[in-house]
């Protein structure tokens, strides 16, 4: 018998096609989330295409143009829209290259830390017993050390470089993924779909990869966005303290550190890199809040109830 449009196998691909469209429509209905997503996409676009769109070489010095103000102030020039620093380097160009540095480090750290942390959380939850106890004690021990202090100590011994920063931030960030994954999987093991998979003889890797992991993807994606914001701030803090990105490379935190001595006479040296950090972190937090509400059925019910109550109240008026 031929498959019809009403058969389950025919409707399943259509449901898969509708799901991204549904998420996009919900995103477009949330103005703060749209603005946050747009800003993050702009940062990604700039980071990828910065060699093609940057107005000046970020390391090129022009002492005659040192500490020029932004273009809209007296003495400013549209050739340097956001002004220049104490060595005559273009502030906008350095911010654009700083976006590439911050995004590349943050995304790499999140990829490494999440992969390792989720794997450890799955192993601890599904194997249980002594393995679970040992892994969770390692997590508790490492969480007892301040992240920034640990990073500064290790970087002082090993030296500062982008690779070292990625390794240190990855080591200090995998625990939150492991703890969240372990907590969700422990509760999910008693769900009916996991017990059914065990009864039909599915192996442990198949149960984890095909049944458990897709069901915990929503909360982990929210955590991933929040950790991205944390890593952006951590990298900026390390660079500001002189233990992260080193000249002649550039990053937002390094630009703030180089401009702090001129903060009263040339405020743009600190203000614009600081705004880039603040807006990136704010956008990530707004997007994470939207993702949490959108992927949580209880939160979706609350939002729907508030919308219905608001509409009914407006009709009575």
From TrEMBL:
The keyword Transmembrane applies. The chain crosses the membrane at residues 33-54, 103-128, 148-177, 216-245, 265-293. InterPro entries: BP-dependent_transpt_permease, MetI-like, MetI-like_sf, OppC_N. PROSITE patterns: ABC_TM1 (PS50928). It comes from the Bacteria. Keywords: Cell membrane, Membrane, Transmembrane, Transmembrane helix, Transport. Residues 99-288 form the ABC transmembrane type-1 domain. It is found in: Cell membrane. It is a multi-pass membrane protein. Pfam families: BPD_transp_1 (PF00528), OppC_N (PF12911). The keyword Membrane applies. Belongs to the binding-protein-dependent transport system permease family. This is ABC transporter permease. It comes from Kaistia terrae.
């Amino acid at each position: 018998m031929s498959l019809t449009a009403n058969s389950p196998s025919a409707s399943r691909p259509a449901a898969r096609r509708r799901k991204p469209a549904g998420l996009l429509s919900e995103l477009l209905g949330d103005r703060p989330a749209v603005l946050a997503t747009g800003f993050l996409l702009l940062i990604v676009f700039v980071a990828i295409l910065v060699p093609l769109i940057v107005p000046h070489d970020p390391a090129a010095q022009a002492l005659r143009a040192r500490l020029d103000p932004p273009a809209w102030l007296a003495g400013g020039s549209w050739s340097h829209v956001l002004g220049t620093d104490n060595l005559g380097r273009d502030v906008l160009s350095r911010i654009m290259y700083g976006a590439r540095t911050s995004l590349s480090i943050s995304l790499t750290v999140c990829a490494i830390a999440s992969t390792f942390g989720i794997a450890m959380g799955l192993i601890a939850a599904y194997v249980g017993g002594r393995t679970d106890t040992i892994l969770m004690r390692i997590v508790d021990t490492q969480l007892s050390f301040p992240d920034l202090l640990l990073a500064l100590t290790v970087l002082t011994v090993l030296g500062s470089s982008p690779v070292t920063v990625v390794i240190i931030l990855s080591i200090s960030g995998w625990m939150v993924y492991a703890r969240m994954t372990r907590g969700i999987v422990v509760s999910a093991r008693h769900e009916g779909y996991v017990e059914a998979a065990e009864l039909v003889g599915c192996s442990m890797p198949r149960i984890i990869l095909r049944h458990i992991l897709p069901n915990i993807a929503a909360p982990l994606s929210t955590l991933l966005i929040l950790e991205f914001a944390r890593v952006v701030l951590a990298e900026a803090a390390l660079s500001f303290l002189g233990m992260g990105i080193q000249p002649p490379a550039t990053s937002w935190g390094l630009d703030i550190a180089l401009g702090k001595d001129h903060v009263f006479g040339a405020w743009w040296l600190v203000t614009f890199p600081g705004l880039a950090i603040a807006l990136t972190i704010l956008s990530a937090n707004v997007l994470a809040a939207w993702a949490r509400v959108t992927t949580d059925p209880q939160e979706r019910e609350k939002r729907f109830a508030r919308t219905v109550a608001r509409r009914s109240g407006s009709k009575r008026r």
